[in-house]
Amino acid sequence: MAAARAGTAVDPASTPAASEPKPPPGYVQVERAPAPASVALPVAAFVVLGAAAAVAQVNEVVVRQPQLYLVSGTSPGTGVAALAALAGAAAGLLLPAGKDARSRLGFLVAAAASVLALSGAAWFFAFGRGITLWLPATALPFLVAALVTHAAKLARAALGVAVARLGVLEYLLSPFRLLGIAVVLGAAASAEATVGPLRAGALLGMATAALSGFCPSLFAFVDGQPIAAPRATRWTAASALLLGGGLLAASQRWVPVGSVPSFVNTVIYAEQGERQSLMVTSGQDALELFVDGRLKVSMVDQRRYFEALVQPVLAASERHDRVLLIGGGSGMAERELLRHDDVGQITVVLLDDALPRLARRLRWTRELSEGALASPKLRFVENEGIVWLSDNDERFDVIVVDLPDPLDYLDAKSYSVHFYRLLARHLAPGGVAAVQATSAFYSPRTFDAIRASMNAAGLSTREYHAPVPTFGDWGFILGRGDGVVPRIDAERLSPWLHGVTVQELELLPPDVQPPEPSPENLLYDMSMVEIFAEERHEAGL
């Protein structure tokens, strides 16, 4: 029985394998192809990143950087950069793609990354060192436009068939994918505008260099076989990464990242002196110079402020042979003084000579000051105003004081009774002093405290104000030490004023009058600091 069972043939239909489904005759089973999305994704990612990098490069080098550094009234204009970019784009399109498009594409992307990484530093140093801006305004847009357009031409030759075959464009046209791309690109554009042109160029250059390293992997994926990146591409991409990283690290020393959000407009240049920090910002087609974070010169209305500061005191003083300027250095107050041929020697006392050195180098300040800082009539003294007044006995026919607002006790001592007594001591017979006295409208109590302190120091005063758009309605006070109230001679003043009359200067409406007299500002009781802080808070400043 056992032998019979052993010899009995097993029916194949009764085995477990018989229950498994079998392919029909003639059917050859192959591995399942990957989903279309998984195939299209790498190519789509390269297309999106490449297009975004191209747009970002053109926007940064052809549009944004020229707009920041080439404001209206300067030479060259932004049109020069646009023309250079058009010429570069034409050159990039005319160059033949050739048969080795894939091997050259990565190199061109890496080369564009190097130019982009250098662009911010090139503008920064050309602007700050007084070098002609024609070079960055023409060379950078031409190179970037030529490299970007030729790289796009090579990308079309290298990937055009793959993009069409894989349906990459249809893949990207999904509403949710488009929304995601828009969000990412918007965030990148916002970050680019926030970090400033120096860091933006370095960061975009590093990102573009990383994209060039993706080219060999992409082509290997499309072709199904590994492709080695040419040595020139590897070296150029590595150089762009190192260059961008080095410039990004160095930018912290040139423009500390913590200082960038402190300004409304974009910081395009910064310099640190021994005792003061200097920054130039650009926005709304105008440049502004800041000293220790406080606005010193604005292209918008600098003439209004410095005319109102200087011209009335010249019209009120009897002689102009010897002039003292405390807090100058930008060249603007010096320009107003030098408009009068009878002005003799001008002694400029400033905290740090970094300001006049920078103002001489910057083309826009040289032009606004009409070359005043080169005048042989100027004598610069590097010292704190109150210290210099204490250590010297020179007398002057005209004294102009243009010091920072009394935000803290260090600055407020130059608004004290003691300081104004020193001014009175240095006035020659018939001499007149002029001080900037904060806003008569936004800080009337501080304005009155300055007047009270000058009166307590023995100075007879006359107040006036002038509209200055960047500052607001700004106040000034004249002081004379011989008991005579200063009088502004309208005939002597009118030819030098623009946009305001003498009568408007001296008219102080009721809304700039404090509700009660303000106290004097004393060295041992600087109440002005608290008063000014309260008024700034009430004004939302």
In CATH, the topology of the largest domain is named: Rossmann fold
Question: What is the gyration radius calculated from CA atoms?
Answer: 35 Å
Helix residue percentage: 40-55%
Q: What is the arithmetic mean of pLDDT?
A: 85
Largest sheet: 7 strands, mixed
Beta-strand fraction estimate: 5-15%
Strand order of the largest sheet: 7-6-5-8-9-11-10
Number of domains: 3
Q: Determine the N-to-C terminus distance.
A: 110 Å
Structure write-up:
By secondary structure, this protein is α/β, with parallel strands linked by helices. The protein folds into 3 domains: 36-254, no CATH class; 262-294, no CATH class; 301-538, Rossmann fold. Helix content is 53%, strand content 14%. It has helices at 2-7, 36-69, 78-94, 101-128, 134-166, 168-172, 175-195, 197-223, 231-254, 302-316, 332-338, 354-361, 363-368, 385-391, 409-412, 417-426, 444-456, 490-493, 502-506, 527-538; strands at residues 266-272, 277-283, 286-291, 294-298, 322-326, 345-350, 378-382, 396-401, 427-436, 460-468, 472-480. A 7-stranded mixed β-sheet has the order 7-6-5-8-9-11-10, with helices on both faces. Helix 4 runs antiparallel to helix 8. The longest helix has 34 residues, at 36-69. Residues 1-7 and 30-35 have low confidence and may be disordered.
What is this structure, in a nutshell?
The protein is of the alpha/beta class and 541 residues long. It has a seven-stranded mixed sheet with strand order 7-6-5-8-9-11-10, with helices on both faces. The protein is elongated and about 120 Å long.
